[in-house]
Amino acid sequence: MTVEIPDKLYFKIGEVAALLKVKTHVLRYWETEFSVLQPVKSRANQRLYRRKDVETALLIKDLLYRQGFTIAGARKKISSEMNVSYRSESDMPTAEQVLKKVKTDLLRIQQRLRGNSLSE
Predict the structure, then answer these.
(1) In what order do the strands lie in the sheet with 47-49?
(2) pLDDT in tens, 87-97
(3) What distance in Å separates the CA atoms of residue 78 and residue 58, rounded to the nearest whole number?
(4) Contact predicate 78/59, CB 8 Å
(5) Are 20 and 40 members of one domain?
(6) In whole angstroms, what is the distance from residue 54 CA to residue 106 CA?
(7) Disulfide check for 97: which of 44, 59, 93, 107 has CB 3.0–4.6 Å away?
(8) What residues contact residue 18 under an 8 Å CB cut-off, 6+ apart?
(9) Within 13 Å of residue 39, how many CA atoms lie on the same side as its CB?
């Protein structure tokens, strides 16, 4: 199941539902069942999904609909995959490493935005 995710920072719940071909209430339900799926909320209390949230929702849909996992089984699978990344405290990135990554990401976004404004 390959879905082309548009290159943008935030997606409204309707956009994510259309990408995944599920109803919006399904996404809201998944938010209650999967702690990794937590879109930010705008000032108007509207859900705003980041790319990471869309990818997580795609994974959840694949586990539930294609692979036949139960909600509990999918939750366990996702949490075990996340725990593989950091098996111990020493494997976790330091605050300095996280900040360096954030800075790199922000600089890349800034360059992308400057490139877009030049082409307009």
Answers:
(1) 11-12, 47-49, 40-41
(2) 445 555 677 77
(3) 12
(4) yes
(5) yes
(6) 20
(7) 93
(8) none
(9) 25
